[in-house]
């Protein structure tokens, strides 16, 4: 049985979210939903996430899962809004515990974040199987970009998060806390060991050289043409390339607000006595 896969593009963060549905039972999962966030005004919005909600409702789907491929640094998760509107369980890889520990110290919120991932409804183990209606799915731990990065495999489709980009975009950066280029190479190897016809769905695309945005490729195409990790690139060569490239990259514009919210499963920081939530910005801390 094949999944019905519908992509949604969030232009401001170049993020693809997905509704993955079982046509037989009308059960569905949403992968990597985005909450609109105006950093200058510190204001959230639900216009983009509402598109996902409306699609699920209009299709008569029952939402079983809200799946995060990792705690994103480039957009704010709409998981809580989606859950409020549609139900479903919010899940992420169990490596979120390490991410919470690292960033909990950075933001000095370890009293709130106990580092056990309890903010999420479910933490997936490597290799764990789950279902979306009658669709069988499983989890591949694919750390390297972050400690909690996972790939969701459902039939002939795999949702790779930030681990891979389209072949002309290469691979994820590894210079965040818990990142490791060698580990990323090994994780990509796991993905590229899937059947060559496996459809790979990206979380981001930045349209290099002005081409049209794309969200889907295959294992075969990645092995043949990925500019960082095509067939023949050794682990040492990749580590050297990835490390050098990461030194040239600037900090993502939304990293500090996004991670602070996303390690809480999309919950905003607890409000102060005045009822307002505040984002912490560590000065010279990152």
CATH superfamily placement: Ribonuclease Z/Hydroxyacylglutathione hydrolase-like
- Averaged pLDDT, please? 96
E-strand count: 15
* SS content category: alpha/beta
Q: Could you say which overall geometry the principal axes of the C-alpha atoms support?
A: globular
Strand content is 15-25%
Sheet with the most strands? 6 strands, mixed
Which series of helices and strands comes N to C? EEEEEHEEHEHEEEEEHEEHHH
Q: If you consult CATH, what is the topology?
A: Metallo-beta-lactamase, Chain A
Task: Label the CATH architecture.
Answer: 4-Layer Sandwich
Give, in spatial order, the strands making up the sheet with the most strands: 1-2-3-6-8-9
Uncertain runs? none
Radius of gyration over C-alpha positions, nearest whole angstrom: 18 Å
What is the count of distinct domains? 1
Distance linking N and C termini: 46 Å
Report the total helices: 7
State the helicity in percent bands.
Answer: 10-25%
Briefly, what CATH class?
Alpha Beta
């Amino acid at each position: 049985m094949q999944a019905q896969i519908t992509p949604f593009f969030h232009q401001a963060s170049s993020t693809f979210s997905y509704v993955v549905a079982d046509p037989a039972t009308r059960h569905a999962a949403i992968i990597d939903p985005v909450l609109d966030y105006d950093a200058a005004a510190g204001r959230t919005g639900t216009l983009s996430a509402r598109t996902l909600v409306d699609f699920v409702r209009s299709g008569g789907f029952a939402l079983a899962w809200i799946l995060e491929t990792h705690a994103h640094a480039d957009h704010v998760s709409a998981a809580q809004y989606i859950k409020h509107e549609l139900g479903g369980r919010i899940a992420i890889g169990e490596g979120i515990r390490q991410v919470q520990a690292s960033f909990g110290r950075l933001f000095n919120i370890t009293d709130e974040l106990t580092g056990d991932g309890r903010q999420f409804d479910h933490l997936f183990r490597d290799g764990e199987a789950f279902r979306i209606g009658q669709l069988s799915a499983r989890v591949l731990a694919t750390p390297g970009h972050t400690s909690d990065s996972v790939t969701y495999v459902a039939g002939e489709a795999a949702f790779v998060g930030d681990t891979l980009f389209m072949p002309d975009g290469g691979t994820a950066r590894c210079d965040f806390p818990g990142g490791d280029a060698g580990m990323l190479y090994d994780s990509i190897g796991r993905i590229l060991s899937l059947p060559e016809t496996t459809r790979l769905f990206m979380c981001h695309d930045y349209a290099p050289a002005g081409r049209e945005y794309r969200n889907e490729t295959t294992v075969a195409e990645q092995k043949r043409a990925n500019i960082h990790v095509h067939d023949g690139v050794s682990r040492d060569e990749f580590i050297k390339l990835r490390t050098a490239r990461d030194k040239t990259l600037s900090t993502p514009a939304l990293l500090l607000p996004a991670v602070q919210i996303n390690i809480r499963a999309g919950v905003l920081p607890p409000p102060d006595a005045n009822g307002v939530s505040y984002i912490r910005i560590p000065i010279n801390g990152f």
